[in-house]
Each structure stands twice: as structure tokens, then as C-alpha cells.
Write a structure and sequence with these properties.
Number of helices: 5
Helix content: 10-25%
Number of strands: 8
Radius of gyration: 18 Å
Largest sheet: 8 strands, antiparallel, barrel
Strand content: 25-35%
Strand order of the largest sheet: 1-2-3-4-5-6-7-8
């Protein structure tokens, strides 16, 4: 949405591999009930309110600012990730909300990563105009359920769905960036670099920390997307041992995803 609502809710307005379905999580926050907001959600809306107050002073109010992707600056990882390859440009930015998946085989002492499953929501114009606000979104969305209906926006940011993220096997992340109305690309990836999340990164619902920041490259079979970065992660870290888990289990997470093609 690029009208007055764009600011209040930070909206922006192939090969096929079968997509699994994501299971919504029970979350306690209600968008319409401020008494249920966590401190993280409250801080997010306070930041939105400050942006709105400042925007009221702009001569073009209530018009939206231009969505200029050339001004979008990807966050720098604690251990800097390699830059996008020569000739690539930023095409899309999304917030991923879902689960990091793990398994504890019989007799195993530590969980083993088994991919991830997430829905991706279009944050491209927010990245270009309000990167400081965008950085608050991954932690804030963990207080809300992932919408089960693809036509619904993600709380609390009212971003619209722009794709799905899943793993057809434990080492191949796939990004199917398309909806009924738009196609942003398709990527079959392999990890090329990683950095630990910052020390002050959100701890996630289980309090165990945030998964690493990543650079992913094309593994073959991609269309319109050559490289993907996962940054500003929130949550997703499993327990250190399998003492309380057997078989498959999920850990909630969210992150920014930056797409280059």
C-alpha cells in the first residue's frame, strides 16, 4: 500500500517444486488489543508513530515517499558477508516468518538441522525508505501467528505475501517468489557464506538466540534470482541437546531476505 496507510503499517505494496504447508503457531499478541502487546511489539508501534508524526510535516503528506531501491542498504553482518556479485542488483526484500526445522534421531545427543519453512512478505519499499523500522519487524512478528490464508497480511506490519521458502532436501533452500498476481523470481540455492548473528540479536520465543546471517548462491535451476541474503534474524536456534526432544521439531524464527538478480 502506498498511501497514508503505507506509513502506519509499513506496507509496500518458472520451475516448480511442491511446497509444503506451514503450520501456524499459537501466539499471544492481538493486533487490536494493546494490552496484549509485548514490549517488542509496543516498541515497534512507537517507532511507527514517530515516523507518522514526522511524515505529517512533509509537504507531500499524505503521499507516500518514492520507492527507490537504489537507496536500500543491506545491513552489514558482524562478520561481513561477501558483497553481491558483479552485475547483480537488488530486486526484492522480504520478511520471512516461519520455523527452522530440526530432528533428534534415536540415541542422538544433539539436534540436526532439517531445513526451514517460511512465508515471505514484501518489504521492498520499507527497506528503501525506512530501514530502521524494517529492522524491528523480524522480532515483532514473532509475537503473532503466521497467517494461514495467503491472501492475508502479516501482523503487525501489514505486509503482503510475496513467496514461500522451503527445503526439498536438508541442504537446498528454495525461494518460490510468486503470488497469484506477481512473480519476483525463483531460486534454488546453496550456502556460500555465513556470519554469527550480532550479540544483541533477539533471543526468540525459546530464549536461545538467533540463527546466523547467510549469503546463498544459485545452485542451478533459478530464475530471476541469483543470490539471497538472510540478515537481521530473530530466533530459530535449537536446544543444545536432544534431552527434551525426539524426532522432528520446529523452532520459530523470522528474518529479512534480500534478493539479487
Amino acid at each position: 500500500m502506498r498511501s497514508l496507510i503505507w506509513l502506519l503499517f509499513t506496507s509496500s505494496a518458472s520451475i516448480s517444486i511442491a511446497q509444503p504447508t506451514i503450520r501456524p503457531r499459537d501466539a499471544s499478541a492481538s493486533l487490536m488489543d494493546p494490552n496484549s502487546w509485548t514490549p517488542v511489539v509496543r516498541a515497534y508501534f512507537e517507532a511507527v508513530g514517530k515516523k507518522f508524526a514526522k511524515a505529517r510535516e512533509a509537504p507531500n503528506f499524505p503521499g507516500a515517499p518514492p520507492c527507490d531501491l537504489s537507496k536500500a542498504m543491506m545491513p552489514i553482518a558482524p562478520t561481513p558477508l561477501p558483497p553481491p556479485s558483479d552485475g547483480l542488483t537488488l530486486t526484492h526484500v522480504a520478511i520471512g516468518r516461519g520455523t527452522q526445522n530440526y530432528t533428534c534421531a534415536p540415541g542422538a545427543s544433539k539436534p540436526v538441522a532439517a531445513g526451514a519453512l517460511a512465508k515471505l512478505y514484501n518489504a521492498t519499499c520499507t527497506a528503501a525508505t525506512y530501514p530502521d523500522l524494517l529492522a524491528l519487524v523480524p522480532n515483532a512478528v514473532l509475537s503473532f501467528n503466521t497467517p494461514s490464508d495467503d491472501d492475508k497480511t502479516m501482523s503487525p506490519s501489514s505486509l503482503f505475501l510475496s513467496g514461500h521458502h522451503y527445503f526439498p532436501d536438508p541442504t537446498t533452500p528454495v525461494f518460490d517468489m510468486g503470488t497469484k498476481k506477481d512473480f519476483y523470481g525463483f531460486a534454488v540455492c546453496a550456502k556460500s557464506a555465513q556470519s554469527p548473528a550480532p550479540p544483541d540479536a533477539p533471543k526468540g520465543p525459546n530464549g536461545l538466540g538467533s540463527v546466523p546471517w547467510l549469503k546463498l548462491g544459485d545452485k542451478g535451476g533459478s530464475s530471476g534470482i541469483k543470490e539471497v541474503y538472510r540478515v537481521n534474524t530473530a530466533g530459530g536456534v535449537p536446544p543444545a541437546t536432544c534431552d527434551d526432544h525426539q524426532g522432528d521439531f520446529q523452532v520459530d524464527y523470522a528474518a529479512e531476505y534480500w534478493f539479487y538478480g
